[in-house]
């Protein structure tokens, strides 16, 4: 599964547009940025979710992950943060979205719980 990092929210729309042309399933993960010095996210739930998502997301055929890290100082407590205002990707971190679903699909906010991720991905596969 390809992962495309969207370094800045201003690049999000173009990344979704490009990915939607190549892949049937475009996942968007809004997650806490990884500190380059420690190799870990500032978000505890994001640290737990990362290996779960790495294991389970590749089970969905013809899919891509748009990885959208958020900087703690810009995101935390800021209701005007761009991803919080973007239709279809609002929510906390980590949150996984199927951005080009054929029918409305609720985002997955329980990314740190493997059974929830597996169940959510099964619902995705049923729509393919």
What does this structure look like?
The chain has five helices and four strands, in the order E-H-E-H-E-H-H-E-H. With 128 residues, it is an alpha/beta fold. It has a single domain, classed as 3-Layer(aba) Sandwich (Glutaredoxin). A four-stranded mixed β-sheet has the order 1-3-2-4. Helix 2 links the parallel strand 2 and strand 3. The chain starts with a strand and ends with a helix. The mean pLDDT is 94.
CATH architecture: 3-Layer(aba) Sandwich
Average pLDDT confidence is 94
What global shape is seen?
Answer: globular
Radius of gyration: 14 Å
Question: Spans with pLDDT under 50 lasting ≥5 residues?
Answer: none
CA distance, first residue to last residue: 16 Å
- The helix/strand series, from N terminus to C terminus, equals EHEHEHHEH
CATH homologous superfamily placement? Glutaredoxin
Beta percentage is 15-25%
How many helix segments? 5
Count of individual beta strands: 4
Largest sheet: 4 strands, mixed
Total number of domains: 1
Q: What is the helical fraction, as a range of percent?
A: 25-40%
Indicate the structural class.
Answer: alpha/beta
Could you name the CATH class? Alpha Beta
By CATH, the topology is Glutaredoxin
Organism: Aduncisulcus paluster
Protein name: Thioredoxin domain-containing protein
Domain Thioredoxin: 12-119
Family: Belongs to the thioredoxin family.
Defining traits:
four-stranded mixed sheet; alpha/beta; 19% strand; 128 residues; 5 helices; Glutaredoxin
């Amino acid at each position: 599964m390809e992962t495309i990092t969207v370094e800045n929210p201003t690049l999000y729309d173009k990344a979704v547009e490009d990915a939607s042309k190549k892949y049937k399933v475009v996942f968007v993960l809004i997650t806490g940025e990884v500190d380059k010095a420690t190799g870990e996210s500032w978000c505890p739930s994001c640290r737990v979710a990362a290996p779960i998502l790495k294991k389970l997301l590749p089970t969905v055929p013809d899919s891509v992950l748009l990885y959208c890290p958020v900087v703690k100082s810009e995101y935390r407590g800021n209701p005007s943060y761009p991803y919080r205002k973007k239709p279809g990707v609002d929510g906390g971190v980590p949150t996984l979205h199927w951005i080009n679903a054929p029918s409305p699909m609720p985002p997955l906010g329980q990314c740190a719980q493997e059974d929830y991720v597996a169940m959510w991905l099964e619902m995705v596969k049923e729509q393919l």
